[in-house]
Amino acid sequence: MLNPYDDPTNPGDTLFRDVLSLALLGFLAVIVLLLPHVVPDQQVQPTTVTASGDVVVQLTWPPEMDADMDLWVKAPGDISVGYSNKGGKVFNLLRDDLGNKFDLSSVNHESAYSRGFARGEYVVNVHSYRIDPNYPPPFTVEVLVSTKTTKNDQVQVKPIVFTRALIRRQGHEVTAARFSLTENGELIEGSVHSLFKPLRIDGRK
User: Which residues contact 110 (CB under 8 A, 6 or more apart)?
Assistant: First the structure.
């Protein structure tokens, strides 16, 4: 019995269907051949990336102050990083805290994170960009420097420098700490001091 869709006068229809069927069979054959080479998801090893924050510098000031304090940091061989230059080769400024302005949190806090350890001297400065008239200077702000290392697959965070910096006036820039690290992030004994070194000019270059 003839298929009502077949046209016995047009053998091209039969040839087209044959070619299409062969193409589909060839495609299925390729899929069957490739299946043994597909790696299950559980066998795929994730790419491991060392997280940032090997050196963490944190600046805090009293939460009741609607003041804008700025953290500036400088790693060995790098440019200064602060509000006007938020990233360098080593450091990145995580947040520019403007005080109570555009801030849903009562915490006044800025922080900078490094990628890896650069051997040499690090500098941490604080700049009083804007003073709260209700809390005139002098007042102190706090700076904490920590290092993060991994040992036996365990992340260890170690505070290495904690200090307070005295803010005397609006626009005052003060060096809170200078210290030196080894290439493994170890604090070099006797390297901590606070001899002033300006960073904002370098950061604007």
Answer: 58, 59, 69, 70, 71, 93, 94, 95, 96, 97
